[in-house]
Amino acid sequence: MYYTQTQSWARENSVGLGRQAERVLGLGETGLAGQTYRPDGRRWTQISQRTRVNQDWGSFLLEHEEVVMTGDFNTFNDRGVELDGHVDKLADNVTFMNGIRWKLTRQKMTPLFTAAKLRNMYYIMDKSGRDFVDYLQRGPKKQAFDILSTYCSASIAASVFGIHTEKSAIKQGLRARKKQNTKTHDFAELCVELQRKGTLRDAATGYEIEPTDEVMAAQAFFFFIAGVKPSATTMFFSLFELAKHPDILDKLREEVDDVIERCDDNSTYEAVTDMKYLDMVLDKSMRIHPAIGDVIRRCTKSGGVLPVGQIHVDKGTLIHIPVYALHRDPKYYPESEKFLPERFSDKGKRNIVNYTYMPFGDGHRMCLGMRFARLQVKTGLLYLLRHFTVKTRDAHTEMKFGKLPGQVRPLNIDLQFVPRAKIEYSIVYTLHGHLIRTIGAAILALDCSDEQWKGAPFTLPLLCGRASRDMQTQMKKFETM
Q1: What radius of gyration do the chain's Cα atoms show?
Q2: How far is the CA of 149 from the CAs of 21, 358, 362, 438, in angstroms?
Q3: What is the pTM of this model?
Q4: Same domain, 93 and 116
Q5: Could you tell me if 280 and 242 lie in one domain?
Q6: Residue 263 marked in a binding site
């Protein structure tokens, strides 16, 4: 599909461009806004209509993703979202900034998400995971998505400041941290370090940003914008697929139990980051159910050209990369809706075509907090699956989606979290009953006498079918567990 911001241009050009666009862009359809690229048919129409950020439609492109997101970044470096940071100070964050202001802020923020920084911060995430289990054990009367959002909010708040998200509270937290001598390794401490270094300056242009409390508070707020609903969506869909595929759930639980037991009922940064099967499950879930439906870039200067077909793009034109459609395109992912985590093994990843898998975006504006988000999601799933199993009554329900800008959130499916102990004790009870009856029958067949079993490391009444009353007593003990 190829059309620019104005429908009048599309009316004038789409008919004549149709066959050319199909040949040049490799698309199945061309036309006006509201029509659809077809790897996922009606569902992608629904997703695209509900998640578009602006009223004007830009150009939906395939085979030009690399040019837009990386190759000609100087021309396509704007997210296309217009928020005034002077009016709303919390909007002045790295998610919505553009131009040199975005570049300088991102340069200074990127070191905050290194492996070393996340390792030092992990004790906070681990505590949030344990608190999540306590919260679930109290049986909150909420839908699963809201429960998962609560965990993501609490985890981010703890990792950032351990306080609520109001701007005034964040500023107060920054001031308090400046007076502390102890290191906490959370985001507040890292913000204070930036402030102590003074004015942020771009060496090439001389552009400067003062790291005021308002600017730092806005960067902290970006965690909540980018981290709560998308992370909750990723957790929700991963659990939804696990509920539909109990064999995969069992295999993942083996890895979960192994990690917890090796770490003496704890988790560590190294253990969680090394959970290969959980990584495969997450990657597969984010491929089928990306939290972000499409990625938008705006052409910021005249003369933008897409090389295949030499298509000229006017300044101000929005370019949409249809992430949801790409992730489900059978051209790149045969049997695209099958949940097969092994496709994202180290070997399987080699077959993935560049720019067809973008759950966190791609290129220079890829999600800055990707490592943080992934660690947060993995920790939450680790503790949840250690103590609960997951079920759903909506395995065959056709999904409906909410009207959230840029995000894909299900409305009509839910999950149930069931404590593992109840299920496992039930299994033990069943197996124990079968074992007792089998052995008891065998003993009866031998017509053994009490004398034959003297000195045995068990009592005859437990095994012998003649002692049915004792057997029933033993079985009742398991029933009450």
Answers
A1: 28
A2: 42, 22, 25, 48
A3: 0.74
A4: yes
A5: yes
A6: no
